[in-house]
Records
---
Amino acid sequence: MSIDLDRRNFLSRSGLGFGSLAASYLLNAAEVTNPLAARKPMLPATAKNIIFLFMHGGPSHLETFDPKPLLERLNGQPVPDSFGDVQLQFSTFKSVPILASRRKFKKYGQAGIEVSDVFPHVAAHADKLAVIRSCQHDGFTHTAALNWLNNGWPRLGRPSVGSWVTYGLGSESENLPAFVVMLDGGIKSGPPVYGSGFLPAAYQGTVLRNGPAPILNVQPPAARGSANQKDFRELLQWQNQQHLTARGDDTDLAARMASYELAFKMQMAAPELADIAKESDATRKLYGMDETGTAAFGGKCLLARRLVERGVRFVQLWSGSTTGGGDWDGHAQCDKGIVTMAGKVDKPIAGLLADLESRGLLDSTLVVWGGEFGRTPTSDGSANGGGDSQGRDHNPYGFTIWMAGGGVRGGQVIGSTDEIGLRAVQDPLHVHDLHATMLSLMGLDHEKLTYHFQGRDFRLTDVAGKTDLAARLRT
Amino acid sequence: MQEPKKTTPSRGLQFAVFTMFGAALSAAQQPAVAILQKQCGSCHGASQMSGFDVRERDALLRGGKRGAAVTPGKPADSLLLRAIKRDGDLKMPPGKSALTSKEVALIEAWIGVGAPWDSTAAKTESTWWSFQTPKLPAVPLPRNMKWVRNPIDQFVIAKLEDKGLKPVANASKLSLARRVYFDLHGLPPTPREVEAFVNDTSPDAYKNLLDKLLASPRYGERWGRNWLDVVRYADTGGYETDVLYSNAWRYRDYVIRSFNEDKPYTEFVKEQIAADEIWPDNLDLNGGYELPKDKLANLNRRLGTGLYTVGPMAVEYTFFGDQYRAEWQAEAVETTSSAFLGLTMGCARCHDHKFDPLSQRDYYRMAAVFAGSEDREIPIVSQMGVFEYTRYQTRLVIADQIKERLMAIDGRKGAKRPATPASKDERETLLRQLGDAYLKAPVMFPKASVLAHSEMVPDSHVLLRGEFKQKGEQVSPGFPGALGVTAKITEPHRRKALAEWLTSPQHPLLARVMVNRIWQGHFGRGIVATSNDFGRQGDAPTHPELLDWLAVEFAAQGYSMKALHRLMMLSNTYQMSSEPNEANSMVDADNRFLWRMNRRRLQAEELRDSVLASSGALNMKMTGPPVAVPLSEEEKAGMRDPTQWPVHPDVAEHNRRSVYLYVKRSFRLPMFEAFDQPDAVASCARRESSTVAPQALTLMNSDFMLKQAAQLAERLRKDNSNDPAKLIEAGSRIAFGRAPKVDEAKRAAAFLERNDLAALCLLWFNTNEYLYVD
C-alpha cells in the first residue's frame, strides 16, 4: 500500500540516526500497531469520507423538509384520535393542540423536492439531495436520542459512528486525526457522543477548533522556539533509541517512538490545515464567511472540506450549543428558533456542497444532515418543560435526514410521515438502518464490523439494521 | 435453593401440576427437555431454522413458521409430537435420524403434564472447568528446582520446560525496585529509596521492602483504584443530567481503607453486597454525641453497599417507575456478575446466554435479589449529631429570604415579586448579610449513600427482550444453577443470601476470579486473560493448575489479599527481567507462559501521580470529597455545562493523587482519556494500553506537563545550584532512579547549552524509560 511506502520514505529521510535494524523495528511496529493504518473496505464502496452535519437539539422537520398542509387546517385543534398517543418528554400528547407551520414550502430542482424558505441555499442543490422523511427511533429525551444517532444505542458506553468507521477503515491521512469533530459549544450529553466507547482510544473523535492551534495541545509552547523543538525531538528520540536498543524487540516501545514522529508531524500539519489565507475570496464568500451570521459555521464547513481533501475519514460538524448561541431545541418559539439557526448554516452548507462538487470531492464524500430527532406537530404548551404554545416537543417517531454525495443519487425523496408528521409511515428507516446504510456506502458490512467486548461481538447496529436503502440511494 | 412456590394467574394450571407431582415430575421433565435440546438444537437453536427455537419454553410453544408447536397438556394437538412421531407431512428430525420410541414417549408424557420447564434444571449439569469447585492440585516437580523460590515457580517452570522455553535472568535491583513500587503504590521510588534497596545486601532485603510497601497507605490508593475500575466507579450518573452523587467518595474511601486494612476478600464482598442485612447498623441510639463503637463499625461496613449507588443512571428512566427499577436492577446484576463472578450475564438480559449455561431466567432471578432494595442517604453521625448540625439551619432560612429580596430588587427571572426600587446601600447590605448567613450556616451533617430496603418488594418478572414493559414469567430470587452452589434465602434478606452464595467455600468462581485479577495486576495479563469472562467465550487459562492452587491457597490464607501479593511477588517468576530472548520468542512471542516479565506502560493515574511525585508537588492528603482540577477552555470542549466542573479553590488540592480526582461520567479528564482511563459505564476488566499521537502531544505541550516540568526544574536548582552536571545527575535519578550514562550526560549538557532546564525535565517525562516499567 502506498501509505506504507510513504512511511518508509519518511523514516529513511528522517535523519534521526536510527540504525537500520532499529528503523525496521520502528516500521514493523508502526505497521503492526498503528490502529489507524488505512484498510481496504470489505465491500465495493461509493464513499470514502463522511461529513456529518449535526443539528443539535432536534431540528423541526415540519419547518424544513417535510411540509404538512393538514396542520394549517387543524391549527389549534386537539389531535384527531386516529393518530393515537405517543410518549413525549415535556408535554402530554393528547392534551396539547396542533400547531401549524408558518414556513412557505416550494418545489426545487428537476425532482421538485419541497423545501421550506429557511433553507433557500441548500434547496438550490435539491438535485443532489436524497431526503429521507421517515427516520425514527424511540428516544424521546436528548441523551437517548443523541446516543441513538451518534452511537446506535440509547445507553452510554457504545462507540460513535465515527469511531466505528475509523475502526473499520483506518485513515488516509498520516498527520491528522482520522475522526474530527467541530463543536459549537457544549453538548447536552457531553463528549461520549463522539467517544470511542469500548473501542480503543485511538478511534475517538478529536475536537478541532478554529485558530492556529486547532487541536488540543498541538501547539508547542511559545517558550520553546522552533530551534529548541529540533533539539527536543533529537534528544528525546536518541534517548528512546538507547532505551530500545537495550531492550531489543519491544514493538510497543518502537510504536511509541513512531507516535512521537506522528505528533511532530501533526504539530506542523495542524497550522497548515487551519491556515486558510490561501483560500480565495470567492471561496470564502461561497461559504458565507463574509457575513457575520454565517461566518462561524462557514469557517467550519470550509475546514471540513480541507480535512476531507487531506484524507480525514470522518468529520462531524455541530450546530447548536448548551453554552451560548442557541440550539435547534424548539420548545419555545420553534419557528423563530428555526429561522435563526437555519440562517447560520444554510449558506455554509450550500457552499460546502458546491465546493466539494467543483473540486471533484462530492462523489467520494457522503454528506449527511440531521439531528437527534424532529419535532411534534403539536405545540409544547407544557408547564414543566419551559415550552410554550408556539413551541414543539421532541419527536423521535418520524423525522427527516438528508444525504448527498458519496454515490448517493440526488433528487429523490424517500419515505414519508403521516399526515401530521408525527410518525414515519412509508418506508420507515430506523436509526439502525440509517447506520447500516452509511456503513454500506463506505464499503463496510455492518454485520461483520464487530468488536468483542464483555463476552459478545458488538456492532454499531446491535442485532438489527437493514441495508436495502443503500441500493436505492445509489441508483 | 428452595424455589418459593409463587404462581401467576396465567400459569396457574401448569404450576398446579408442577406442585402436585413435585419432585417426581421434575425428574421426568429433564430428559424430555434435554432430548429436545440435543436432537433439535443444532437447527432450532441459535440458527432458528424456520423461525423455530427450542431453547426457551415460550419460543418452543410459539413454534416457528408453521405455528404453535406445543399445546401444553394436549400432546395430540401438538405439531411437535406429530413431527417426531412422523405421522404427518412434517417429519422431524429430517432424514433417517428419527427419535427412538422411548424418546418420543418421554416427550409425549412431558407435554401431557403441561410441558413444565425449569431452565436451570435443563442446564444444571455443566462440565465447564470454571464451574467446578477448584481443588488443590499436585504441585509439579520440575527438573530445574534450583530456580524455584515458591510453589508458583514450580507450576511456571514446569510449563516452561514442557514447552521448551527457558526463563530469562532475574531483573536488576533497580528494575525490581521500580517494578514493586509501581505495582504496589503506583508511584516511582525516590532516589533515596532506590539507593536504600540497592545497597541493602541482607538476604531479607526484598521481603522487607515488600512488607514496607504493603504496610503503606499508598498501597490502598493504588489497588483501590484497580478495584474502582472493576466496579465502574464515578462521582456522577452520566447522561443528560449527569447528576452529582455527592457521597460517592465515601464508597471510594471505603475501598481504599479496605485494601489498606487487608480486609479478607470474602468480607469485602459481603459488605458491598449486603452489609446492611448481615451487620445491621440500626442499633439503639446510646452514645450521645459519639456513635457507639459497634454501630460505627457496622456503618463503616455498610458504606460498601455504596457500590450499588454509583452506577450510570439516565434521567429518562424516571419517566416510568418500572423502568427506573428495571434499569437499576439490570445494572446491579451486570456489575455483580462481572466483578464477583467473572461472567458476562449482560447477554442474558434479552435472551439465554448463547455460550454459557446462564438463562434469561437466571438473569431475572438475580435481578430479583435486588428487588426490594434501593439506595438511600443516611446520616453517619449520631442522632445527637444530626440535631447539632441542624439546629442552626435558621440561618439558611434567612439566606433564602435575602436571596428572594435581592432577586426582586434585580428584577430577576424567578423572583416572586416584581422589581422594586432599592438603594444601592440596601443591595450592598443584603449581599453582606447573605454571605454572612451562608458562612455561619451549618454544613449539612455527614451522609452516605448506601443500600436499604424499600417499603414494598415489587414482583419480579422475566422481561422479554429486556424491555420493562414486556413482562414474562414471574420469577423469585435465586442464583444460576449451573454453578452448583446453593444458598437459602430468608426473606427479606435476599442480598445476604447472594453474599453467602458467592462466598461459600464451594463457590467455583469467586476466589479464582479475584486471584486472577491480582495476578493480572502483577504480570500484566491474567492466567485467564479475559478477567471478567471465565465462560466459554473467555480465554482458556494458560496455567489452570496454578490458578486453582492460588485459589485454594487464597482461601487457606483467610482470603488475605496482602498475603497473595506477597506470595506472587516473592516468586522467582515475578523477579525475572523483561529482557528479550530470540529462541523463546520463536515459540511464545506473546510470553503467555511467562519466560520473562511483561513490560508495561504506566496507567493514566500512575503517570499523572508520578509526574507530580517527580516534580515534588504531589499532595499526599488522603480521603475526602472529589477534587476537580482546573481545565483550559480548550480542554472543556463539549462539556454540557462548565458549572458542573467545580474547580477546587485551594490550589494545593489540585496536586492530590489521581484516585481522589472528580470522576464525571459524561466528561473524562482529557489527559486520562488520552491514556485509556475507562469510561465508568460498565465494569472494566483490564485497561487498554494504546499508543497514539495525542498522548505525545499531551505529554509535550499540555499546561499540566509544562507546569510540572518547571516545578521539577525549580526543585533541582534548589538542591543543586546551577551546575549542569549535578542538575542532570539529580534529574536522572529522580526520573529513572539511576545516574546518567556518560554519553547521556554529555548530550543532556549540550541540550542545556541551548535550552532551559524545564525543557530537559519535560523531555525526561516524555521518555519511554519514564513511561514504562520493565
---
Amino acid sequence: MNDMTPSREQRIANLKGMGASRKRVEDVRFTQGKGNYVDDIKLPGMLFGDFVRSPYAHARVKSINTEAAMALPGVIAVLTAADLAPLNLHWMPTLAGDKQMVLADGKVLFQGQEVAFVVATDRYIAADATELVDVEYEELPVVVDPFKALEPEAPVLREDLEGSAEGAHGPRRHHNHIFLWEAGEKEATEQAIDASEVVAEEMVYYHRTHPCPLETCGTVASMDKVNGKLTVYGTFQAPHVVRTVASLLSGIEEHNIRVVSPDIGGGFGNKVGVYPGYVCAIVASIVTGKPVKWIEDRMENLSATAFARDYWMKGRISATKEGRITGLHCHVTADHGAFDACADPTKFPAGFFHICTGSYDIPVAYVGVDGVYTNKAPGGVAYRCSFRVTEAAYFIERMIEVLAIELGMDAAELRRINFICKDQFPYQSALGWEYDSGDYHTAWDKALEAVGYKELRAEQAQRIEDFKAGRTRKLLGIGLTHFTEIVGAGPVKNCDILGMGMFDSCEIRIHPTGSAIARLGTISQGQGHATTFAQIIASETGLPADSITIEEGDTDTAPYGLGTYGSRSTPVAGAATALCGRKIRAKAQMIAAYLLEVHDGDLEWDVDRFVVKGAPERFKTMKEIAYAAYNQAIPGLEPGLEAVSYYDPPNMTYPFGAYIAVMEIDVDTGEHEVRQFYALDDCGTRINPMVIEGQVHGGATEGYAIAMGQEIAYDEIGNVKTGTLMDFFLPTAWETPHYTTDHTETPSPHHPIGAKGVGESPNVGSVPAFSNAVHDAFRAFGLRHSHMPHDHWRIWKIARDLGLHG
Amino acid sequence: MAKKMQVTLTVNGETRDVLAEPRELLIHTLREQLGITGPHIGCETTHCGACTVDMNGKSVKACTVFVAQADGADITTIEGLGNPDGLHVLQEMFREHHGLQCGFCTPGMITRAHRLLIENPNPTEEEVRFGMAGNLCRCTGYQNIVKAILAAASQMNQKEAAE
Amino acid sequence: MIPSSFEYHRPSDLAAAIGLLAEHGDEARVIAGGHSLIPLMKMRMAGATHLVDLQGLGDLKRITVSADGISIGAMVTQAELIAHEGLAAAVPLLREAALQIADPQVRNLGTVGGNVANGDPGNDMPGLMQCLGATFTLEGPDGSRDVAAREFYHGAYVTARADDEILTHIRFAPPAGGYAYEKQKRKIGDYATAAAAVLLTRNGGTVASASVAMTNLSDVPVWSQAAGEALAGSDCGDEAVRSAVTAMLADIDPQQDNRGPVEFKRHVAGVMLARAISRAWSRA
C-alpha cells in the first residue's frame, strides 16, 4: 500500500457502477448517424418484399390474379396463401394461443390485412407490382363495435373457428367470443358492494391506440442454401423467441437459424410480436435463395401491426361513507380485432389486468374479461406497459375519482385513507398478487407537498368563482394519480410465452487484462442496456463499467432470454446479471485466496478487490485476479473467469409512483395547456438516475399523447381514419409539457439488487394523471366521466354538455 | 419505369454522380445508392423529420424531395457534422444531457438543430421548441434535447467569444 | 410509400414550362416545393406522367414591395416569405400566418404559389389571399390573365386555373390598419381546425372597413363579405362581433373529420373570428 493508492471513494467513482449517472456508451455512435438499424442492412443480391393489402375490413377474396405483376420486369415472385398452404405457413400461431392468417386465406378480416407478397429486385418495382396484383373481393358486413359483435345475429368473422365451443382460454359462448377470463371472487364482491353505503359505477373506456415507434417494423431474411443456415435480422424485442418460432414454423432446426436484432429504433411493445412480413420474407428467401428485405411503411405500421388497449371497463366500486373502500367489481369487453394476437404470457389472456386494485387495500374484488373478435387489426400489445397494466391503472385511478365525487371527498384524501400501508407488505391483493414492497404514504405526501397541493386547490376554487362571474373562460384541473405497477415477468411456474418460461439470462467473460464482455437475452430499444448493465457488473465485479462491453440481440452468441418489454429487463435480466457477477466474484475470491495464501473466508470484498481481513495492506484487485485466472495453475480450479446465469424471478416487482398534472383548459375551444407535471417514481434501487429520468420524460410524453389525442380510430365500415402522422397524434417539442421528476427508493426485497424496473411506469402513471386533470377541471360543474382521448373537440363537448357555452 | 437520369449531388463536401429514376426519393438515394444511412425514414409524410438533411443551406425532409429536384444540390447529413476523432459540440451535448435514447430520430434532430443554431445562435427555450417542431422523438420527451441544444448554443457562443 | 414513375422536366423559362404543359396535356403536372403533391404521389392518390419543376424559373422567386402594390412570385417559399423584412413591415398578417403553417423544414420547400394553387381547403394562404383581396396571375399558351383570389376556388382541388396554365404571381395592395390570423390546430404544423384572417381599418372609434376570410371550414376558403359588412361602421363592440360571427357562420360549411364534428367546428370558427377581430381591432 502506498500514497498512490486511490481512496475508497475514488475507487467507487472509477467503477461508474450502480447509482452513477453514467453517460451512455451508445451515444457516440448514434449521434454520428452510425447506428445500424434493420433498414441500414444491405446484403449482396438482396430483394425487396412489399404487400398487397386489403382495402376492405371484411370481404371474401374471390380471386387473385398475379399475372400482370409477374410480367413486370424485376418482379421475382408473388406469394399468396395458395403458395404458402403447402408449407402450412398460410396461417401462423399467435402469442395468445390463437392463429392468424399470414396471407388472406379465402377472406380478409381487417383493412390493411396482408393479401399477397410481392418480391422484386428493388423497392420501387415491388411497390409498382403491388398495384398490378388484381384481387377480386366480395364485401361482407363489417363489425367494428365489440358489443355489437356479441349480438346473436352478428356476422361470423372467424369462419375457421365456427362450431368450436372451446378456445385457447376456455369456453367460447358466441361465434365472435374469444374467452372469458376471471379473477377474484364474484359473488362475495357483489355482496360486499350491494351491502355498502356508497357505490359508484362507471364505464371507463381506454381507447385503441398504437405504440408507433419512430422506426417501423422490418426484417432482412437470408437463407444460405449452401450451408443450410437461415439468418434473420429484424426489429425483434424478443429475438430468441423469434428463433424458436421460426424453427417450429419452418422446420429448420434451431441451430441453423440465427436471429439478430440490430439497433432498434424504439419498440414500446410494437416489436414483440411476429408479423406476416417476417414470415413472408423468410419464405421468400427460402424460395429464391436470396436475402429478402421487408420494411413496412408508416401507414402499414399504424393500420396493421400491433394496436394497444381498446378495453371497455365497466366498474363498480363501493365504500363506507367515511371513504374506506369495501369492494371493486370490473367487467371488461376487450376488443382484440380479427385475431387474438395479444402479447401476454400464455396463461394470462388479459395480461396482468388484475393488478387493477392498484395501490389500495381493497378487501374483495372481481374481474371478468371477455375477449371479442371485430373487423379491426390484431395486436393488443403492451404499449410501454406490462401486459394491460396501463388499462388497469387507468381504470382504478378513474374509479377512485368517481368514488370521490360520489362521496363528496377530496380525491387525494380518499387515496390516502385507502393506501396499502407500509407494514402490510408483502401484501396479498384480493385478486391474487403478492406486492413485494411499498411505501405509498411517504411518496404521496412528498408529491402533494412538492406541487403545493393545498395552494393549488385554493387557486382552483378562486378560478371557479372567477369563471362563474364571467372573469375567465379557463378552468384549472389538478390530475392526481398514485399507481402501482406489476413488472418483471416473470416466474417460470406461471409465466411463459409460447411455452418458453419468462426467465432471462446473462453470460460474463472476464478477459485476462481485466476487461469484460457480457451477453444478455434481452435487447435494448433505447433503454441504454449497454450502459446500465455494465454498471451492474461493475458494482458486482469491481471492474470499471468503461471496460465492459455489453452485447445483446444475436442468438448465435447471446444466452437464451425472453427479451425486452414489460419493464422486464432490469427485474429479470438485471438480476441474472447481478447473480452472474456474483458467480465471477466467488471464483475470484478463491483465486485471491490462493494468491494471498489465505483461506477464502479470510478475505473480504472491498469495492474492486479482495482484502485480507485485518490486514488491509494485503489485497488483490479484480484486475490482478483476472490475469491470474489465465496464467496461474491453481489447484482445484479451472482456468478462466467466466460465468452464466439464468434467473427465474420468485415474484414480480411492484414499482409505484405519484404523478400530478396541472392543466389549464379553454372551455370555448377545448384546448389545454399543461402548466405543471410532477412525477415521483419509486423503482427500488436506482441503477442510473440519468437514464431513469430519461425514461420518465419519454413515457410521460407517450402518456400525454394517449390521454390528449392519440388514437387508432375506425369508421363504421372499418376504414382506419388515423393512418398517418398527420392524424395519429405524436406531440412535438412544442406541445410536450415540461416535467419535474422526483423519487423515493423502496428496494424490492426479493431482487438481488433491489431494482424494480421503470420503463413503463411513466406511461402507466401519466395517462390517468392527464385524464384526471381534465376531469377535475370540470368536476365542480358536474362532470363524472368522459372518454379519452381528450382532444379539442371532446373537451369542448364536455363543456357544451355541461352548459358552459351559455 | 421511366428512364434513369444522371444526378449530381454534393454530399458532405464530396461530389457524387448517381443514376436514378427521377421519382427516386432523395432519402433513398442517400441511404441506398450512397450508403449514407444516418438520415432515417420514419413517417414518409413530412411529419417526423427523421430524414432531415441540410440542402443548399436549409433544413429539408429528404423523404419528400425527388432526387431529380435535388440535382445540383449541396447536401449535408449527420455524417458531415462531426468526425470519428471528434464529435461536433451538438453531438457532444446530446450525449452529455441524455438527449437521445433509441437514436433513430437523433441524426435528423441534430442536423436540424445544427441549422437552427446557424439561423439563431442564441435561441430561447421557446425558440428551440418552435424551431425543432418538425422533428419527432418518441423516446425522450424532448426535455433533454432542448437542454442539449441550449447547452450547445451556449458553448458555441463562448467559443466564438473566446476566439 | 413509393410514387409512380414519371418523366422529369426542369425548364429554365416560363415559355418552356408552358410549352411542356401544352405538349403533355393532362399527363403533366407542375411541381413547386412539392410538399402537397409528393405525399399524395407517394400514397398514389395523385400521379403525373410528366412532372414540370418550376425551380429554374428565377422570376418566380421574387418578392417586390412598393406603395403601389406587392407582388409575390409563386416559387417564393414560406420561409422566404417569413424572412422578408419589407414584406413583414408592409403585410405583417402574412408573417403571422405563415409561421403557423407546417414546420421549419416544410416551410423551407413549401411555396406560396403551391399553397394557393393546388386548391387544398386545408391550406392557409388561399384564405389569407382572399382576405387581402389578392389577384393571381395565370400564364398559359394564350398569354396571361388575372383571377381574383375570391373567384379562384371552385371546390376542393378545383380552381379557375386550366391544366395548361401556371400560377406565376400573387399581387395585392398593401393593406392598412389592424390584422390578425387566429388558427386553432390540433398540434403545431397541423391544418386548421378553424382559422380566421381579419383586416380592419379604423376611423376614430368606428370600423372603417373590414375583410374576413375563413380557412378549412368549407371545400373552399371562405371570404365572408357579410361578416366584413357587419363590422364596417360599427364600434367593434360585442354586438358587432356577434353579428359578424353570425354572418360568417352563414357562409361556412364545415365537414366532420378527425378534427371534430360540424357543430364543434362552427363553434370554434366563431371563437377564432371573435378573437381575430379583437386582436385586429387592438392593432388598427
